[in-house]
Design brief:
Layout (H helix, E strand, L loop, with lengths): L1 H31 L3 H12 L3 H7 L10
Length: 67
Amino acid sequence: MKSTKSTKRTKIDAVRMKDIIAQLTDIIYILCNAKQNNIAIILEQFTDITEEELDSLNIVFPQDMDN
């Protein structure tokens, strides 16, 4: 029973982390008009998230648009 509770807690933590990173990504994109590679660098520097962790969260960056 304890392992099920631990697994559920891990899933909830992962969902929260994904939400926080997704919101941070949106803020950086909207306020800074940053491109995908810039957002990845900012997230790496300020959150210590690795590229593998970011990939595992399946966060899709907005399409870079040439203005």
